[in-house]
Fold each of these.
Amino acid sequence: MTDIAPPISSSASVSTDTSRLGSTANLQKAGAQFEAVFLQMMLKSMRTAKLGDGLLDNKAGDTFRDMQDQEVAKSMAAHQPIGIGKAVTDFLGRSMAALQSGGTAK
């Protein structure tokens, strides 16, 4: 059997370019996306906690419901955020300010 990808060498370097992270707009966008993903996971968990199977449940209906939940989560995050995205944005903003000033985040 042949390897598909070459093995990762221990001398491979990780990019340390964090210039794109310093933008407030990028931090806010990341916070909003995080909140949408969190809400989508919450909706999915709520859907799995059902007490019984419906008469018309099938795989196509589940797929449609997952897509609908994804859009509802995006809309909820954009129009009525629960605050977790803002908390992530604030935390990352403080961390970036501390890194840029050379201190430690508190």
Note: DSSP finds three helices and no strands in the chain.
Amino acid sequence: MHSLFIFISFILLTCMCLICNSSPLPIACAQCDAKVTDLHVNSEVGKQPRIFCEEPTFDFGSRDASETVDHTFVLKNTGTADLEIRRVQPACGCTTAELEKKVIPPGESSRISAKLSLAGRNGELQKPILIESNDPTNPAFQLVMKGMIGADFEITPSTMILRKNSPGAPATGSAIVKMQKNEPFEILTAKSGSEKLKLQWEKIPDENSYQVTAYFEGNLQPGEDVDKIFLETSHLRSKSLEIPVIVVAPKPIIAIPQKITINANRSDSVSRAIMLKSTAGEKLSINKVETPNPSITVSVDLTGDYGARIVLRNIQSKSVKIGQYIYIHLGSGQIIQIPLELTNNL
């Protein structure tokens, strides 16, 4: 209808021009030309570009932090004039976006190839890509890549610590390996880097997790020994897992005397003292002292930073039995055992 109107108007103006040509005043033709030009301009009114994307937000779901997300956005010009893409600006350096073509004619499309690196990311993530164009109604159009980032597995504690009560004593520790998502998995094999650890793993009932237990039975010099547990799983994305391990052996503590002897023939109660000394230059602290009989009272006096004096009172020979010990619990986690013995020679 609009085109028909222009055609009829053109015919009328042509007739007017013919009339004007027959007129002795040539200025009339110039006026007619101006009217034709105005009509041409008016016919272009309403032609504008329109930017459109069927999927402006891409949800990549749950991904591991080691991955890179690739996605292609499709921009379309739904307007009636050329759409000019003037700028494509990702939010930060972790995102790149490559534009296929800058000028999009009406009805045509252009692709944007986007890449998002998830390295170092954790939790919920949302990264925008700003598109600036000559669309008068939407000059700053936004695309978004979003999702959840996190490791497939959670290991608690993140480092397994095995503490030995003495350099030659056995030590054990455990960790829980849990799948963060609702995806089944199995632990297929487990081994330690040093091959000094004995390993067991057991599925926890009604949970998508395993308990991994390590045993250390060898001798160890005082201090810390570092190891690592390597797990092979049936999971498609995380086929191998690692658990750092620290085996802690106590630093030397001198205890004098190394045993407490009581005369079996004595009918009265006696007192005994135990002196402790740290030889490694580490501060000595005592959490508690356990006795085999509640009637035995205990007092502890620290002698500087590296020593302690423990006094045991009200020890009665009739209450002492074979195989009984005084247990001294140190702040380092070490437990010193002092045996109680009966003798007839005192």
Note: The radius of gyration is 43 Å.
